[in-house]
Write a structure and sequence with these properties.
two-stranded antiparallel sheet; flat
């Protein structure tokens, strides 16, 4: 049997007991999973590392949308130091 990885992540706010005020402020909560074979995981990791090298991002650094997407589009000065060289023109 081949090994597989499962990636699981969530987006939104979760509360076990939600009142109307919470539901208005946080209307969505999504959890998703992706099953990846070991062979595909190796290819994916290699491609991610190629992109990180191309954009001078440390290989051991996990990238999250909140770290770069919004702050680069708004030219936010609070960018993570390892992303300070990126602008909306070079991504």
């Amino acid at each position: 049997m081949k090994p597989y990885f499962i990636f699981s992540d969530e987006c939104g706010a979760y509360e076990k007991r939600r009142d109307d005020k919470f539901c208005i402020a946080h209307p969505f909560y999504v959890r998703s999973n992706v099953l990846v074979s070991m062979d595909d995981f190796i290819v994916l990791t290699d491609r991610i590392n190629t992109l990180k090298r191309e954009y001078d991002i440390p290989l051991g650094r996990e990238l999250k949308w909140q770290d770069y997407g919004i702050s680069i589009k708004r030219n936010d000065k609070r960018k993570k130091p390892y992303l300070s060289h990126l602008t909306s023109e070079n991504i």
